[in-house]
Amino acid sequence: MKITEIKVYKVKPRWIFIKISTDEGIDGWGEMISGTKTETVVAGAYEMGNRIIGRNPMEIERIWQELHRSFFRGGPINGTIISGIEMALWDIKGKYYNAPVYELLGGAVRDNIMVYSWIGGDRPDEVVESALDRLDRGFKAIKMNATEELHYIDSFKKVQEVVDRVASIRNKVGYDLEIGVDFHGRVHKPMAKVLAKELEPYKPMFLEEVVLPENEEHFAEIAQHVSTPLATGERLYTRWQFKNIFKQGAIDIIQPDVALVGGILETKKIAAMAEAYDMAVAPHAPYGPIALAATLQVDACTPNVFIQEQSLGIHYNKGFDLLDFVKNKEMFQYKDGFVELPTKPGLGIEMNEEFVEEIAQEGLIWTNPMWKNYDGTIAEW
């Protein structure tokens, strides 16, 4: 079998899909992250993808190593391109062997996968109503952004507003819902210590990205202030970026993104490293249906995954949502806060390619919001 063609689709609201075709009529789908450099990713996908035309798609690790080991290796652009290509190759391989990808990675270790639902939006509001809605729909866990923009040192009033939101949920639902609180890297170390400490009485499921990953040395300091589990990892790429996190020992939950770290097998390797350090995994997956399908394959065969992010109905999905481009919509049906293991070959997802092609004609321009502090300085989004 040989790779014959690669197509890349820019799809609203903020997704990039890649389709790899073979001379035996087996196609594979992958997904890449647009971020704020959609055209750069697409151009890179064709540039790197053309290097593997004529190659055997079964040689996934060999192709991965060749694409990764350039002189200037790593980085989010290369990372997401390699990730999209890699998951498409696994899709082909699973279809060839008529088996879900996780069956080729050791088989299932679980019966189903717990998922959580986003509430509150980018600038969190109406969280109680949303939390009650998710509880009514059977979810066991939710996640919300903690705060709007925060300066290096900011008013305690903003901290209290965060605490009040989390408290309002806890007071209404008790412990029937787990609450993940995402600092989203918006909080600098001085305020992160304050906010983490004030949230501790409400027993969050975890605190995510309490500081940006480039300030990873401060994870240990914040961990000394609270007993709440700390999570990070969505902005890291390849297992080498996770090394310091593992050695430091302050983080309790890693959140690798299958569409950024290098794909399915790289995510599996990172999770295995975390298991050796007795750490949990909650994979990052707020993007499109292909990335989530690929992540579920990892979840199925990875024992230290305890919960899965998913983006159905997330506030970023304006105009289109996960199910719009998928034929087998039942794959993403959640029951009592869980999703069943995929059963179809490959990634298990059947794409509506005609609709993908139609919407791709409209183009895609997506950039993350640009926020400013009260004094006009740039704030972290």
TrEMBL record:
A Pfam family found in this protein is MR_MLE_N
GO MF, one term, reads:
metal ion binding
Kindly give the SMART domains that the UniProt entry links to this protein. Answer: MR_MLE
> What biological processes does GO assign it?
D-galactonate catabolic process
State whether keyword Glycoprotein applies: no
Q: Which UniProt keywords apply?
A: Lyase, Magnesium, Metal-binding
Protein name, UniProt field: Mandelate racemase/muconate lactonizing enzyme C-terminal domain-containing protein
Q: Which residues form a coiled coil?
A: none
| InterPro entries per UniProt | DgoD-like (IPR034593), Enolase-like_C_sf (IPR036849), Enolase-like_N (IPR029017), Enolase_C-like (IPR029065), Galactonate_deHydtase (IPR023592), Mandelate_racemase_C (IPR013342), Mandelate_racemase_N_dom (IPR013341)
Superkingdom assignment: Bacteria
Domain called Mandelate racemase/muconate lactonizing enzyme C-terminal: residue spans:
124-229
Q: Which SUPFAM superfamilies does the annotation name?
A: Enolase C-terminal domain-like, Enolase N-terminal domain-like
